[in-house]
Amino acid sequence: MFERFTKEARAVVTGAVEHAERGGAQTVEVEHLLLALLALLDGEGSRASFALASLGGGEWVESVRQALGEARRRGGLSQAESDALAGLGIDVAEIVARVEEAHGVGAMAGDRKGKGRWSGHRPFSRGAKDVLVRALRIAVARRDRRIGDEHLLLALTSRPGVAAEVLADHGVTHESVTRVLYGEGEAKAG
């Protein structure tokens, strides 16, 4: 499937692996894909970077990174999941505080820092694989021959979870990205 990816989409996938390696993660997660996609905003134009920039990406990238870090501290729980647990009387913030008090800040993040570097092939998590499959399906549905970084962005926004929630908090939804990329008028990407 990787041969069907555009140069930009390949950069996102390899960037996600690099983010996982830098963080000491054993698997490439959905959040690593999002971080790699956000890195495109600093480089040359691509369809996903055009969509993100059109939706104010330069203004909120750091906020997204911080929100991903907070979700990682919560053990990967989205804010919606934390709110649902709060409705059941479970205070996730209190649990995180207690775990971090006993085991150190970031203990629930799953970071392996201080435990030696893990080397070798980093497999993609089930969620990250799902994003790649969704990107393929979106490209096929749009009758695009290649899977571009815009398809990865659309896949990230169409899948429930931390990445979609954090993007939606900044106005980046499946609908808004679709409108920018494929909509009528001046918002249309070339």
UniProtKB/TrEMBL annotation:
This is Clp protease N-terminal domain-containing protein. SUPFAM superfamilies: Double Clp-N motif (SSF81923). Keywords: Hydrolase, Protease, Repeat. Residues 2-190 form the Clp R domain. GO terms for biological process: proteolysis. One of its GO terms (molecular function) is peptidase activity. It comes from Streptomyces ferrugineus.
